[in-house]
């Protein structure tokens, strides 16, 4: 079969190499999956660079989120078990972690309903306890993680402010349903948020960016507001001033969604049921901006690394025949 492999850490376009390799053999409690669609996530970028908290042994195949097909023909969503990731024709995954792919979504959309939407659901509902009528501010609102949070925020009855970088991404954020869109490249984010909220600020702030975005968040968070930290796509990890959190009465909440798989896996299944229902009702629908063949995967991962994509970029492996590779 064909699979992308990382033999040395570096930028995805240089580190990823397409190779002909043997199909992976599932271990105890694992299943072999034919990859129908593999979604690109920022952790894939970080793993290529060797900067992620999970460091699979070299060589490894990136790809942490797929829509796959079991040997008996079931369409499922899975997180592949590294080093046999999803940027390949076949992957392996833990049988206990398989989730049914929603019938209302195609393969690419189903692959994209998992990590980003689960993170958004846990961040907004489990951690921040977002309530209808509150104001939600989403950084990188046109990206894969941000676009999911925008849709989930609207579904929860919140007023959503989206911060983006560039006119094209601003247009995407409006299409996603943001009530207010702020282009950080041409507008003063702090002033714009204060104007949009009458000086009150945002009740919940969803931050997958870190760096300057986090600093802006501390200036516009409302009384008893919650800043949910879900990542550092900017590459800069902030150092919060806890005295500032004290005098303004706001909370800083971390979210590492992957921990729930070991700490409370039943919540992941419950969340998937909620997301499947929202998708069936058309309330949420993953924004898949690009569907690329397996041969173009490295370039696609690099575009995600460079921050020039919107929504999700999904890899669709070429049809696989029945012969063993």
Folded structure, characterized:
The strands form three sheets. Strands 3, 4, 5, 6, 7, 14 and 15 form a seven-stranded mixed sheet that branches. The chain has a six-stranded parallel sheet with strand order 10-9-8-11-12-13, with helices on both faces. Helix 8 (212-220) links the parallel strand 11 (202-207) and strand 12 (221-229). The model is unreliable at 320-325 (pLDDT under 50). The N and C termini lie close together (5 Å). The chain is 32% helix and 25% strand. Helix 4 (115-127) packs across helix 5 (144-155). The protein is built from twelve helices and 15 strands. The protein is of the alpha/beta class and 325 residues long.
Give keywords.
325 residues, alpha/beta, seven-stranded mixed beta sheet, six-stranded parallel beta sheet, 12 helices, 15 strands, 25% strand, disordered C terminus
């Amino acid at each position: 079969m064909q699979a992308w492999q990382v033999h040395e850490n570096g930028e995805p376009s240089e580190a990823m190499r397409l190779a002909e390799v043997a199909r992976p053999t599932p271990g105890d409690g694992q299943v072999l999956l034919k990859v129908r669609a593999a979604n690109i996530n920022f952790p894939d970028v970080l793993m290529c660079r060797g900067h992620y908290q999970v460091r699979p042994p070299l060589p490894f195949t990136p790809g942490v989120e797929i829509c796959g097909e079991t040997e008996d023909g079931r369409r499922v969503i899975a997180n592949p078990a590294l080093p046999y990731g999803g940027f390949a024709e076949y992957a392996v995954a833990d049988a206990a972690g398989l989730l049914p792919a929603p019938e209302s979504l195609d393969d690419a959309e189903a692959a994209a309903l998992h990590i980003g939407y689960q993170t958004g659901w846990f961040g907004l509902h489990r951690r921040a306890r977002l309530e209808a009528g509150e104001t939600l501010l989403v950084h990188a609102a046109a990206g894969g993680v941000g676009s999911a949070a925008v849709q989930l925020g609207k579904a929860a009855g919140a007023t959503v402010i989206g911060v983006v970088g560039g006119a094209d991404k601003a247009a995407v954020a409006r299409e996603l349903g943001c009530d207010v869109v702020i282009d950080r490249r041409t507008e003063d984010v702090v002033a714009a948020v204060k104007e949009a909220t009458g000086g009150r600020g945002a009740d919940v702030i969803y931050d997958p960016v870190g760096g300057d975005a986090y600093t802006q968040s501390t200036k516009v968070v409302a009384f008893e507001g919650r800043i949910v930290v879900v990542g550092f796509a900017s590459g800069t990890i902030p150092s919060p001033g806890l005295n500032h959190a004290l005098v303004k009465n706001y909370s800083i909440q971390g979210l590492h969604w992957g921990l729930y798989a070991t700490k409370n896996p039943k919540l992941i299944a419950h969340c998937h049921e909620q997301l499947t229902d929202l998708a069936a009702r058309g309330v949420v629908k993953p924004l898949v901006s690009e569907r690329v063949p397996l041969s173009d995967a490295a370039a696609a991962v690099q575009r995600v690394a460079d921050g020039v994509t919107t929504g999700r970029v999904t890899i669709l492996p070429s049809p696989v025949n029945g012969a063993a590779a």
